[in-house]
Specification:
- By secondary structure, the protein is α+β, with helices and mostly antiparallel strands.
- The protein contains twelve helices and 16 strands.
- Helix 6 links the parallel strand 5 and strand 6.
- Helix 2 packs across helix 3.
- Bound molecules: coenzyme A (COA).
């Protein structure tokens, strides 16, 4: 267990400088939904009991009463109609539209593409002083600038309580995967004439991936980290970033893309939901990530979510380089069962799954014949806590791939939870994609508020159920 010491270290509330708050007017913090009358009675009865030991049914009742916040910026459908009346930019793009039936049921929308027809120069920017600039992920000072930009401007929940805080090591890992294209990492900078410095005001990233869409293989770009500085919002920089990254992707003779968003755009092929498993309930309640129902005290809540420190299944150990070949085969066989999935050759397995401290955690389970039969992985994506005096960082583990061939989904997920808890995470987040959902109820996951939508650009994919999808975009 190479990283054991690190994993066992508990993460203390961070004491680092408070992140710069945005200038937007803050809305009220989210409120816990009032439990239904019958739930209230049940909770009151429960709280009269002396014992802190709950039956499974009681635990389920409890979990149903807890309202979770989602970490994306989605608006729940019951609060606001998610679909806008018109999408002036997206209506010009090769994507399915809400108000128009498409003749194409599967495959490309724009077919006649030629590299030589692409504009050779970047799209003009709307204001003097703005410039395009590639971000060089081999220069530490450029990684530092990108990190600060995203830490201050990237995705927040709708009540401005949490904002994603991708670490520098995470950004380097994610944006320099094998065969990455340096010119697909694009920023817009503003010249600060007083300080003679360039400040980042927009960013978008593309990385090359290969996916299988209902039996059809496609090499395309995964688009991530679309972000515009708060002061530059609503100036149509986002469409420019999207058009510019598309132009550069086309110059590499690639004509399709995949991306996710909490925002409803025309038109998702799959809508997925985050589920959250509390690991550190006290902190999650303190920072208003989670609420306890009326009459539920903290001692009982802690008891409900308690996990052992030892894994219930023996044989898991951190993945090492020598495991790459076996993990690649395991992953390849696992992926085949999903209608929309990615491909991982050995280089990609090495890049994405060999453990990296504080970035990605992977574990293999080997039998007596040294055959790897099961695999767990999750990644570290903390959020800044924007409105708490002492807690500054929410430590969230995100499920990546859990592959089980000799144990159940519930058993492997329970091992993942324990490993994440032992590594100091506060919460374990997991999409209801692949077979993950099988474990949610028994392991006391709570449903998140928003939906994460999946989209293809220039490719019509039939509507796909989350359980038939295995793409994890970060
Ligand atoms: C998302 C973001 C870049 C949009 O920028 P903006 O300044 O608000 O919007 P702009 O005026 O530049 O552009 C508006 C267009 O972008 C579209 N848009 C908004 N969010 C989008 C998203 N996540 N992905 C793609 N397009 C998006 C809008 O629908 C609109 O297009 P339309 O005219 O067809 O409706 C900006 O709000 C932001 O940085 N938010 C925080 C980070 C974030 O949420 N990133 C998205 C992660 S998926």
């Amino acid at each position: 267990m190479e990283d054991k010491k690190e994993e066992e270290k508990k993460v203390e509330p961070q004491k680092e400088e408070e992140p710069k708050k945005d200038d937007d007017k803050k809305d009220n913090p989210p409120k816990s939904e009032e439990p239904k009358e019958e739930d209230k009675k049940e909770t009151q009865n429960e709280s009269k009991k002396e014992s802190n030991t709950l039956t499974l049914q009681e635990q389920r009742n409890f979990i149903q009463q807890i309202i979770k916040n989602d970490l994306d910026n989605d608006k729940p459908a019951h609060k606001k109609s998610e679909i806008k009346e018109s999408y002036p930019f997206w209506e010009t793009q090769p994507v399915l539209q809400f108000n128009k039936e498409s003749d194409i049921k599967f495959g490309e929308i724009w077919k006649d593409h030629k590299v030589e027809d692409q504009p050779k120069e970047p799209f003009p920017l709307p204001e003097p002083g703005l410039e395009w600039k590639d971000v060089d992920m081999n220069q530490q000072n450029e990684i530092d600038k990108l990190y600060e930009f995203l830490k201050t401007n990237y995705v927040e929940d709708e009540d401005h309580m949490f904002r994603f805080d991708y670490s520098k090591d995470f950004l380097k890992w994610h944006l320099t995967s094998p065969n990455y294209c340096p010119e697909w990492l694009i920023s817009i900078v503003q010249l600060d004439t007083k300080k003679n410095k360039k400040k980042m005001v927009g960013f978008i990233a593309g990385i090359p991936i290969k996916v299988c869409i209902h039996g059809y293989d496609l090499e395309l770009a995964e688009i991530d980290f679309l972000c515009v500085k708060k002061e530059f919002r609503n100036k149509r920089l986002a469409p420019l970033l999207i058009k510019e990254v598309s132009r550069r992707i086309h110059l590499r003779n690639k004509w399709w893309a995949v991306y996710t968003s909490g925002t409803m755009l025309p038109k998702p092929f799959c809508e997925t939901t985050y589920y959250h498993r509390n690991l550190n309930v006290k902190k999650l309640v303190d920072v208003h990530f989670t609420y306890l129902p009326h009459n539920m005290n903290m001692a009982r809540a802690k008891n409900v979510y308690k996990l052992p420190t030892e894994l219930p299944i023996s044989g898991f150990r951190p993945m090492e380089e020598k495991d790459v070949d076996q993990v690649q085969v395991l992953l390849e066989n696992f992926e085949k069962q999903f209608k929309v999935h990615g491909y991982y050759d050995k280089d990609l397995v090495k890049h994405w799954f060999i453990p990296r401290k504080n970035v990605v955690y992977s574990y293999v389970r080997e039998n007596k014949e040294n055959k790897i039969t099961d695999f767990i992985s999750f990644y570290n994506l903390p959020s800044s806590i924007l409105q708490h005096e002492s807690y500054k960082k929410l430590m969230a583990a995100y499920s990546f791939f859990n592959i089980n061939t000799t144990i159940t989904v519930k058993e492997i997920m329970k091992c993942a939870l324990i490993l994440a808890k032992n590594a100091g995470f506060d919460v374990f987040n997991c999409l209801n994609i692949m077979n993950n959902e099988e474990a949610f109820q028994d392991l006391l996951f709570g449903k998140g508020g928003g939906k994460l939508k999946y989209y293809f650009w220039n490719f019509v994919c039939p509507p796909t159920e989350p359980k038939d999808l295995s793409l994890v975009l970060m």
